[in-house]
Amino acid sequence: MTLDQYRFETGMYRxxxxxxxxxxxxxxxxxxxxxxxxxCSMYKTEKFxxxxxxxxxxxxxxxxxxxxxxxxxxEAAGGPSGAVTRDGVLALLNKEPALEQHPGLxxxxxxxxxxxxxxxxxxxxxxxxxxxDLVAALTYLKTTFPHIRRITTYARARTAAQKPAQxxxxxxxxxxxxxxxxxxxxxxxxxxxxxxxxxxxxxIKGGQKAVAAGFQVSEYWxxxxxxxEKTLDHARNTARVLNAINPHxxxxxxxxxxxxxxxxQMVKDGKVTLLSANEQLAELQVMIRDLEVTGKVCFDHAMxxxxxxxxxxxxxxxxxxxxxxxxxxxxxxxxxxxxxxxxPAPSLGHF
Length: 351
Hints:
Blueprint: H1 16-20, E1 24-27, E2 29-30, E3 49-50, H2 53-76, H3 86-95, H4 105-113, E4 118-122, H5 131-144, E5 150-155, H6 157-162, H7 165-173, E6 178-184, H8 188-193, H9 200-212, E7 216-221, H10 231-245, E8 249-252, H11 262-268, H12 277-290, E9 296-298, E10 322-323, H13 328-339
Parallel strand pairs: 1-4, 4-5, 5-6, 6-7, 7-8, 8-9
Antiparallel strand pairs: 2-3, 9-10
Helix pairs in contact: 2-3, 2-5, 5-7, 9-10, 10-12, 12-13
Protein name: Radical SAM domain-containing protein
Keywords: Iron, Iron-sulfur, Metal-binding, S-adenosyl-L-methionine
GO molecular function: catalytic activity; iron-sulfur cluster binding; metal ion binding
């Protein structure tokens, strides 16, 4: 193969849990089809586009070709058959030095050395693809790398709600296992304010349809998103929506006003009053008290910065979090401990 035939696209973003599992990043779509959320800076300068099945297959072929090349060179360097070793990677770079500039090679190597077990479909909402195309691309990925055990992706609840149930089931059967959905809040006024493009009923419908289709559902919410003005409504309505969905995972992403976003400007203009770290924790306490689910509540991101009185993180950053309802009392006790401590102030900018 020529160097051009080794090329494949890799997007910038994936959930922390997918980095922790060293997922293969496979780009089915580019950027975000909605791209209006007032808190988000991720794709604001980029235009959304669908990729064709042929483009996606070509990327998968390039990944497979690089994988086989590294396996061959690794074995020639004394490594075990079928494995990728450091010596094999160095031999490849010595043979093809231009690959040092390949934007996805390090990701591919990391994935292979970590066991090549999981994949993440990029970018922000590949569920928006036509169902036959998405099924075809997923099937090709699974056929090319049959050892992959889990495939996940970001998706919008509105898209899941609009997909027919039989389409969601077909996508699930094709190999997509988990959907990461950005709930952010369950409060309708706040959803409108942040330009999320979906109501709480839409969030519930999308989440419930995804669960019913057999997906693992991971919902993200943002403590502090409504500022002091909406803190109780935000907490209670978020719990209400999550209770209705009962997702497998609930992941906390405390709000930070990111420079350049509309919400950052609103904070500067005094239209939104940021919560202190203790006030964010108090909001979290309200939400957790109201939460009646059977999934896992997770704090797997550095933005969950609250500290123990004696030092160290208050809440575990483990990707599997706290199992509800069994560990709900433990989590509430930890929050109570944190509230007794003068928490360090979060920064205004992006954390």
